[in-house]
Amino acid sequence: MVIKTKCFGEVEIDDGKVVEFETGLLGFEQYKRYTLIFDSSSEEQPVISWLQCVDEPTLALPVINPFIIKEDYNPVVEDEVFKSIGDVNDENLAVFIVLTVPANIENMTANLRAPILINSDTRKGCQIIVENQEYQIRYEVYETLVKNKEKEE
Fold it and tell me: Is 146 helix (H, G, I), strand (E, B) or coil?
Protein backbone atom coordinates (compact mmCIF):
# COMPACT_ATOMS: atom_id res chain seq x y z
CA MET A 1 0.00 0.00 0.00
CA VAL A 2 1.21 3.51 -0.77
CA ILE A 3 0.47 6.23 1.77
CA LYS A 4 0.98 9.94 1.46
CA THR A 5 2.92 11.73 4.19
CA LYS A 6 3.82 15.35 4.78
CA CYS A 7 7.38 14.62 5.93
CA PHE A 8 8.35 11.71 3.67
CA GLY A 9 6.19 12.09 0.56
CA GLU A 10 4.68 8.88 -0.77
CA VAL A 11 5.79 5.82 1.18
CA GLU A 12 5.24 2.18 0.31
CA ILE A 13 4.26 0.12 3.36
CA ASP A 14 3.23 -3.47 3.84
CA ASP A 15 -0.42 -3.87 4.86
CA GLY A 16 0.86 -5.93 7.79
CA LYS A 17 2.57 -2.85 9.22
CA VAL A 18 -0.68 -0.96 9.82
CA VAL A 19 -1.66 -0.70 13.49
CA GLU A 20 -5.32 -0.18 14.41
CA PHE A 21 -6.11 2.14 17.34
CA GLU A 22 -9.72 1.30 18.19
CA THR A 23 -10.28 4.60 20.03
CA GLY A 24 -7.70 6.65 18.15
CA LEU A 25 -5.00 8.67 19.90
CA LEU A 26 -5.56 11.42 22.45
CA GLY A 27 -6.72 14.47 20.53
CA PHE A 28 -6.99 12.50 17.28
CA GLU A 29 -9.79 10.07 18.12
CA GLN A 30 -11.19 10.10 14.57
CA TYR A 31 -8.00 8.60 13.08
CA LYS A 32 -7.59 4.88 13.73
CA ARG A 33 -4.87 3.53 11.40
CA TYR A 34 -1.15 4.26 11.82
CA THR A 35 2.22 2.86 10.89
CA LEU A 36 5.73 3.40 12.27
CA ILE A 37 8.18 4.93 9.81
CA PHE A 38 11.60 6.49 10.10
CA ASP A 39 14.03 8.42 7.98
CA SER A 40 17.18 6.36 7.99
CA SER A 41 19.41 4.78 5.42
CA SER A 42 21.08 2.51 7.99
CA GLU A 43 19.94 -1.00 8.81
CA GLU A 44 19.31 -0.28 12.48
CA GLN A 45 16.18 1.44 13.73
CA PRO A 46 16.80 5.06 14.70
CA VAL A 47 16.18 6.50 18.16
CA ILE A 48 13.22 8.58 16.99
CA SER A 49 10.49 7.15 14.75
CA TRP A 50 7.27 8.61 13.40
CA LEU A 51 3.81 7.27 14.15
CA GLN A 52 2.29 8.19 10.81
CA CYS A 53 -1.46 8.21 10.27
CA VAL A 54 -2.33 6.13 7.21
CA ASP A 55 -5.43 8.16 6.38
CA GLU A 56 -4.23 11.73 7.12
CA PRO A 57 -0.89 12.76 5.52
CA THR A 58 -0.32 15.70 7.87
CA LEU A 59 -0.69 13.63 11.06
CA ALA A 60 2.63 12.17 12.17
CA LEU A 61 3.89 12.10 15.74
CA PRO A 62 7.57 11.73 16.67
CA VAL A 63 7.86 8.83 19.11
CA ILE A 64 10.64 7.21 21.10
CA ASN A 65 11.14 4.13 23.22
CA PRO A 66 10.77 5.51 26.78
CA PHE A 67 13.58 3.33 28.13
CA ILE A 68 16.07 5.30 26.02
CA ILE A 69 15.41 8.44 28.04
CA LYS A 70 14.32 6.92 31.36
CA GLU A 71 15.81 3.49 32.03
CA ASP A 72 13.59 2.88 35.05
CA TYR A 73 10.34 3.77 33.24
CA ASN A 74 7.69 1.57 34.80
CA PRO A 75 4.16 2.86 34.21
CA VAL A 76 1.30 1.53 36.29
CA VAL A 77 -1.24 0.15 33.82
CA GLU A 78 -4.54 -1.54 34.64
CA ASP A 79 -4.82 -5.02 33.10
CA GLU A 80 -8.16 -3.94 31.63
CA VAL A 81 -6.27 -1.68 29.20
CA PHE A 82 -4.68 -4.63 27.46
CA LYS A 83 -8.01 -6.24 26.56
CA SER A 84 -8.40 -3.90 23.58
CA ILE A 85 -5.03 -4.89 22.09
CA GLY A 86 -4.89 -8.59 22.99
CA ASP A 87 -2.59 -10.70 25.13
CA VAL A 88 0.79 -9.04 25.53
CA ASN A 89 4.19 -10.22 26.67
CA ASP A 90 7.78 -8.96 26.53
CA GLU A 91 8.15 -10.11 22.91
CA ASN A 92 5.04 -8.57 21.36
CA LEU A 93 4.53 -5.37 23.37
CA ALA A 94 6.09 -2.18 22.03
CA VAL A 95 5.92 0.97 24.16
CA PHE A 96 6.44 4.48 22.80
CA ILE A 97 6.08 7.98 24.14
CA VAL A 98 5.30 11.06 22.09
CA LEU A 99 7.89 13.81 21.72
CA THR A 100 7.24 17.51 21.35
CA VAL A 101 9.97 19.13 19.27
CA PRO A 102 9.80 22.94 19.28
CA ALA A 103 11.85 25.30 17.09
CA ASN A 104 14.58 25.28 19.75
CA ILE A 105 15.38 21.55 19.83
CA GLU A 106 17.00 21.94 23.27
CA ASN A 107 13.47 22.38 24.66
CA MET A 108 12.33 18.97 23.38
CA THR A 109 10.05 17.12 25.80
CA ALA A 110 8.44 13.71 26.11
CA ASN A 111 5.04 12.84 27.53
CA LEU A 112 5.72 10.11 30.08
CA ARG A 113 2.11 10.14 31.32
CA ALA A 114 0.49 8.99 28.05
CA PRO A 115 2.43 6.10 26.50
CA ILE A 116 1.38 4.37 23.31
CA LEU A 117 1.15 0.58 23.57
CA ILE A 118 1.27 -1.63 20.48
CA ASN A 119 0.76 -5.38 20.31
CA SER A 120 2.85 -6.46 17.32
CA ASP A 121 1.03 -9.81 17.04
CA THR A 122 -2.49 -8.38 16.75
CA ARG A 123 -1.37 -5.04 15.20
CA LYS A 124 -3.59 -3.21 17.67
CA GLY A 125 -2.61 -0.25 19.75
CA CYS A 126 -3.87 2.17 22.35
CA GLN A 127 -2.74 5.30 24.12
CA ILE A 128 -3.33 5.45 27.84
CA ILE A 129 -2.92 7.78 30.79
CA VAL A 130 -0.78 6.07 33.44
CA GLU A 131 -1.45 6.35 37.13
CA ASN A 132 2.13 7.25 38.06
CA GLN A 133 1.95 10.79 39.40
CA GLU A 134 5.74 11.16 39.20
CA TYR A 135 5.70 10.99 35.40
CA GLN A 136 5.62 14.38 33.74
CA ILE A 137 3.71 15.40 30.65
CA ARG A 138 6.64 17.60 29.59
CA TYR A 139 9.75 15.65 30.59
CA GLU A 140 12.86 17.33 29.19
CA VAL A 141 14.85 14.89 27.08
CA TYR A 142 17.40 16.80 25.03
CA GLU A 143 20.31 16.46 27.49
CA THR A 144 19.64 12.74 27.94
CA LEU A 145 19.62 12.14 24.19
CA VAL A 146 22.89 14.06 23.77
CA LYS A 147 24.55 12.06 26.58
CA ASN A 148 23.32 8.77 25.10
CA LYS A 149 24.72 9.70 21.69
CA GLU A 150 28.09 10.58 23.25
CA LYS A 151 28.23 7.17 24.96
CA GLU A 152 27.70 5.43 21.62
CA GLU A 153 30.58 7.28 19.93
Answer: helix
Report the predicted TM-score, pTM, of the whole model to 2 decimal places.
Answer: 0.90
61-112 pLDDT per residue, tens: 999 999 999 999 999 888 888 888 999 998 999 999 999 999 999 999 999 9
Residue 119: count of CB within 10 angstroms of its CB:
20
**Cβ(129)–Cβ(97) below 8 Å:** no
Convert 35-94 into a string of H (helix), E (strand) and C (coil). Answer: EEECCCCCCCCCCEEEEEECCCCCCEEEEECHHHHCCCCCCCCCHHHHCCCCCCCCCCEE
Domains in the chain: ranges and CATH:
2-152 (2.30.290.10)
